[in-house]
Amino acid sequence: PxxxxxxxxxxxxxxxxxxxxxxAAQLGLSYLDTGAQYRAITWWMVNNGIxxxxxTAIAAVAGKAExxxxxxxxAPTITVDGTDVAGPIRTGEVTSKVSAVSAVPEVRAxxxxxxxxxxxxxxxxxxGMVVEGRDIGTTxxxxxxxxxxxxxxxxxxxxxxxxxxxxxxxxxxxxxLIKRDAADSSRxxxxxAKAGDAVEVDTxxxxxxxxxxxxxxxxxxxx
Length: 223
Ligand code: C5P
Prior knowledge:
The protein is an alpha/beta fold and 223 residues long.
């Protein structure tokens, strides 16, 4: 199909976002960052003083924030109740709290519905979309035309996330990453997992450019 829908899942630090944006831009597809949506709802909850140790409190306000995602891969945007939160959702505070919020079934149901409607309009418009996340191939879009699961060694993932940092910082980053992935992989409701029909790409020894080329080739085979 021309309006191809591509699901790209995997843990943090595998180059998922960079790859997804570049592939979408190169092939003229729209792009949806589902992690940004979970970060946005987490940001709203932090801002509104919700007790994030209490899943019942989180569930009670799961539908309160209006989250809008801009789907241009060259300039993706995210707003909560009209406020641009692209910067604030990347803070250490939101990053450390997002797994607790995204584990709550009411939050997932609400965000999943949003994601399905965004992907459905991209398909209806004939544009097609790259959707990146943790459960896109398994749960959100089980009928996606192509499913990719990106992996990389914990060392490679931590090194990419920490960039120029050295020694203790890499170690701390690695520990935080491993903790978040463990939480995302072990939650009851649609955990991070590879779909049975996903193509696994181990990016440990690949450059970003090589990963992009690999995924572009796989998408072109589906068009
Ligand atoms: O991709 P990113 O690191 O921005 O995702 C932030 C968090 O959002 C993840 O750690 C996970 O808890 C949650 N998430 C999710 N399902 C998705 C995408 C992200 O639970 N499809």
